[in-house]
Amino acid sequence: MTSVTFARNCEVLVHAETTTHMDIVREKAAELKRQDREDAFFLVDLGDVIKRYQNWQTQLPRAELFYAVKCNDDPAMLKLLDSLGSGFDCASKAEMEQILNMGVRPSRIAYSNPIKQNSYIRFASQVNVDLMAFDNQDELVKIQRAHPNARLVMRILPPTSGKVYHPFGEKFGCYLHEVTPLLTKARKLGLTVVGVSFHCGSGVAEGGAFRGAIAAAATAFQEGKALGFDFDLLDLGGGFPSDLATFEKVAGMANEALDEYFPASGKVRIIGEPGRYMAEAAFTATPCVIAKRQICTTLGGGDREKEGESRTSFAYYVNDGVFGSFSCVLVDNAHPGIKARLVGTPVDPTEYPSVVYGHTMDGQDRIINDVMLPELQIGDVINFINMGAYSTTGSTSFNGMPRPLMFYHCCASLWDQLSLETTN
Ligand SMILES: *Cc1c(COP(=O)(O)O)cnc(C)c1O
């Protein structure tokens, strides 16, 4: 194994194919234990990000990838995506700055938040980020004042069809009946509208959602044409699931709908803005049990046979939580219980009802509500898989709690495919 420094200060462990993510989790946990440190840590498989980037190009060959920074802004992952040739979907001034500071050209940034404060629009204008979304008349007036040369993408509200893990509701996107009035307004203001975007909601489970949205976008293209606009951009938004089998099905249906409504001969440029698909699976979180409480309850009330019997359960307190990297519990409706794996073998395999709390002094800071676990000791660690989406980006320093350490790894066969500037 070798270690390389990447994206300023990120150490990447480059290893053989046979080494697994869990091997490295165990090794890092043991190393921290030897140093008598209890720090929570993340381990990031950069190889997974490379594979997913390549998989996207195979499965959705017509769509250029603009990674959605808000999903996870880890510097090593962003740098990696940059070197793979990805574009970036930014939600704010700070995200645009972060991406521009990596040396990314402004033409590879889409400012896809349809809701923007004036100073951010002015900033985009100053740094030549031209591609931006809108979905209402007042936004058009703001853009006309602050960035009249912007290339605008009209965000439509897709018809809901099919299962979505995290729907966006009606916060964004114009209804189809608003398309013509909006475009008429844009024309009056002398603005350039170049295409249409949508977002089906995060974690689309059925391709039908994309089919419906692509069909609606085609209708919007026609209305644009009737008004004299010549659209040449379709932005599929995000929403792609991280489960690879589901992704393949969803991508297949998106391709079919694209070929039907936007055949390649039409020369429409297509972009997609995946967040969850790229980031979720590559990250695991490994907090440490820093405190525990044994709870004995005496059973009673109703159940004659068990009356008077006592039941043992445990509450564990780990050094991360819902105000930290487990913010996905609050903002992404996540249930980390199904993602928990023990690191190491328990002394006694007997399982007890258990609750896992975070380390802040807030009653809401609970990671897992009710799970059967063998008895854990202080200093044991729990590894949570699929922790890369909407987790660290929602993290705060509430109660003065630090962010976890970040470790990175990548298998050599994938790492060697990259042409990177690294220092050994
Ligand atoms: C959040 C968001 C994305 C990414 O969504 P995922 O479901 O994580 O893929 C992409 N585009 C826009 C405009 C978004 O708001």
From TrEMBL:
The keyword Lyase applies. Its EC number is 4.1.1.17. GO terms for biological process: putrescine biosynthetic process from arginine, via ornithine. Pathway: Amine and polyamine biosynthesis; putrescine biosynthesis via L-ornithine pathway; putrescine from L-ornithine: step 1/1. It catalyses: L-ornithine + H(+) = putrescine + CO2. Keywords: Lyase, Polyamine biosynthesis, Pyridoxal phosphate. Catalyzes the first and rate-limiting step of polyamine biosynthesis that converts ornithine into putrescine, which is the precursor for the polyamines, spermidine and spermine. Polyamines are essential for cell proliferation and are implicated in cellular processes, ranging from DNA replication to apoptosis. Belongs to the Orn/Lys/Arg decarboxylase class-II family. Homodimer. Only the dimer is catalytically active, as the active sites are constructed of residues from both monomers. This is ornithine decarboxylase. It comes from Littorina saxatilis.
